[in-house]
Amino acid sequence: MPDTSPNRRAFLALAAGLVAGCGRESPSTHAVPAVTDAEQAAWLARQRSLAQRFGVAADAARTTPEPPFPVTQPFPELKPLMKLTVRLHPRLPRPDDHRFDQERTASKIGGIFAVPKSPLRGRNGCIPILQLRVEDAPPHLRFDPNTSLMQVYWQVPTHPGEPPIVRTVFIEPDHEKGGTPPLPEGIPLAWVPFPCRVFPERVAEYPSPYLMPKMMRERIAAWKPPDAERSGTDFFLNQLGPAPGTKVGGWPRILGEPNTPTCEQCHRLMDFLMTVATREWDAPTVARWQPQEERGSLDPSGYQSALGLDLGDRHHGIHIYLCNTCPDHPSLAQFT
Ligand SMILES: [Zn+2]
């Protein structure tokens, strides 16, 4: 007999989303201990309590402050490396925001996604991560012809310590169908983001020094920034370079030697697609990247970590890469 306790029903309604192929036919959850009802109840209670304190209205906006000075002032040669990223600013919807669940084709993180017109292969244990409308995408992100939504799903890794298996699809939604079905039972909740609204904002950003040629990297390391407490590399990374937090397009925030993945099918370098972050900013980046609208808040923790993801002590996010050459867009995840 199915468990129809209020917690179970609410969980299924809120977590939503088994769908369409992460590319593996076999379930990956067999090695993972089942989630208990008590854990589900705690997960939902945390989500509700955060939404009450930190829920954001649908018509709100989020604005990144300007950098302390233009990057091209100290480094005019970096001008051609500027890219536009879209900071997604995921925030919990307000508890009375009943439209959120109905908006099946909206840009969002987690929750219920649109169902594609043509069915997709494979369907085991996929957790909905991002649904993005074409008009919210960064300018260089190419959608497949006749599609208007990009959807990113991930699957819990089979072995602890591995990044998730990712699937990216470009679809045209089937408006006749309701939305993606609920998550299967037992999905580890640390990997399921709280369903969030997004507030897309285009921001100009520059690459991490670690992605630059050696000469440029050394020039930045030797530079004396206005904040004398920090090294040139640190100041550049946190104040002038790539945005922290959850974003699509632009530059990945690489904090050490880069390891850009190659596509398993065509062996070309993959393109950076997005970052899913457990925190939108941290102590070194708060001054530059905390949105203006949240600066007066005494406790912004529920804005800073609205997704509620827990990827373990050592990991603060996932970078997702995509092959734009292969027609089925192989995707790959790396811990940040
Ligand atoms: Zn490829």
Strand order of the largest sheet: 7-1-8-9-10-11
Ligand inventory: zinc ion
The separation of the N and C termini measures 42 Å
Element string (H = helix, E = strand) = HHEHEEEEEEHHEEHHEE
Query: Largest beta sheet, briefly?
Result: 6 strands, antiparallel
- The Rg value, from CA coordinates, equals 20 Å
Low-confidence segments: 9-21, 23-30
Specify the structural class. Answer: alpha+beta
Work out the count of structural domains.
1
Description:
The radius of gyration is 20 Å and the shape is globular. Mean pLDDT is 89; it is low at 9-21 and 23-30. Strand 10 and strand 11 form a beta hairpin. Helix 1 packs across helix 2. It has helices at 6-15, 37-54, 99-102, 214-222, 232-240, 286-289, 301-304; strands at 83-87, 108-109, 127-133, 149-155, 165-171, 196-197, 201-205, 247-248, 271-277, 317-322, 331-335. By secondary structure, the protein is α+β, with helices and mostly antiparallel strands. Zinc ion binds next to loops.
